[in-house]
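hey m, so remember when u said the tokens were messed up on ur end? i reran from scratch. heres the input so u can diff it against urs
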Amino acid sequence: MKTILLIEDDNEILENFTEYLELEGYKILGASNGKQGIEFAMKFIPGLIICHVIMPEMDGYEVLHSLLETPATRQIPFIFSTSISEKVERTEALSLGADDYLIKRFDM
């Protein structure tokens, strides 16, 4: 079973996305902030990370930067997620090392 780490500060979105992905057969690790997400990534080495961009304390860019600096987590595919109202450029996210970019509320 593949493991996905979801880093999301909106508890409702985290719960809904977790439920959907578990129904699709994935093991889900849920982190409610960037610091916890980095800890989980280093401890469990998931097969994929989906991380919200705009979060308090540590944003998604800081999370990505930290994971790219660590050999054990550098190769984990990383996808940013953000709401359509947040001004984040897809090209900027990809140029920083993200593998893809999702705009929330996406259709499962």
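this time it looks ok to me. The first helix runs from residue 11 to 23. if urs says something different then somethings off w ur setup not the seq
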